[in-house]
Amino acid sequence: MDAMDTPDTAGAPPPPAGPDAALGDAAPSTVDDADDGRGARDVTDDRGAPGATHDTGGGPPGATDDAADGAPAPSGLSWAKVAVLGVALTFLGFAIGFAATRDRPPSTSSADVGFLQDMITHHDQALGVAALTIAHGDDPGVRSYAREVVTFQSYEIGVMTQMLDEWGLTRGDRSDEAMAWMDMAVPVEQMPGLLTDDQLDEIGEARGADIDRLFLERMAEHHRGGLHMAHEGARLAEDEDVAALAARMERNQSGEINEYRMTAEALGFDVDIEPATVPPADLPPRDG
Fold first, then answer.
1. Domain locations in the chain?
2. In this structure, are residues 96 and 143 in contact, taking their beta carbons and an 8 Å threshold?
3. Is the pTM of this model over 0.85?
4. How far is it, in rounded angstroms, from Cα 53 to Cα 145?
C-alpha cells in the first residue's frame, strides 16, 4: 500500500470552494515560505482531499445558548453553518477514508489503532474551543484560525473514524487509558495538551479579545501536547496511511503553534508561547 503523499503548498491549488464559501471571508491560508518558522502546510493527499493544517465528530461541541438560537458569530458565520460544515467535513473525511483498502487489520493494541483513537479524542476538544472562538472572538485573524481548526480537524476525524471502521472498530472501542501504544499509558483525560474543565469554563465565559488571547494560548498548548503523539504515530504505525497522516499532523500543528505565537505578539497579548520546530516533510524512520 502506498503512503499518502504530502506535497508542500507552494504551487498547489487553493482549498475547495465549498468549505471556504461556507466559512465566510477568511478561508484557510497556505504558507509558501518555511523560513518564517511556520513551515509549509500540506493541502492535499493522494486521495485529492484537504490534508491537515489548522485543526475536530458531528457538529462542533461547546455550543452556548446563543448558538441554540442560531445567532450569527461576529464574522457572520451562524452556528447552524458551523454545525453543518462540521458534519459535512467529517462525512467527507469518512468517505475518502472508505476509498482506501487494507490487506489485514492491525491488532487493537497496535500503534495504528491506538493513535487513531487517541487523536480523535484529542481533536474533539479542539473543535469545541474553536467553535466558541468563531462565535465570540473579536480579531478576524484569530477567528480565521478557529475556522481552520473546524475545517481540517473535522475532516481528519472523518478519515480516522473510517480507518477504524474498516478494521471493525469504532471510536468508542477504547479503554480508559491513552497512549499505551507508545509506552506512556495515562488516563484518557490526562493526555498531554487536553485542557482542564476549569480552562474550558474560562474559554466558555470569555468574549472579544479575551477569547482571542485564550484561543491562541490554549490551542498552542493543545497542539503542542499532541506533537509527541503524532511523532510516535508516524514512527510506530505499520499502516502507511496512518503513518503519513500522523507525520502531516506533526508538521502542520508545529507550524500552527508558530503562527499563533506571532499573532499573539502582533496583537500585544501577554502570553508565552514557545516556538515549535517544524519537522521536514519526509517521514521519520519507522520501527519494524
1. 17-25+37-266
2. no
3. no
4. 10
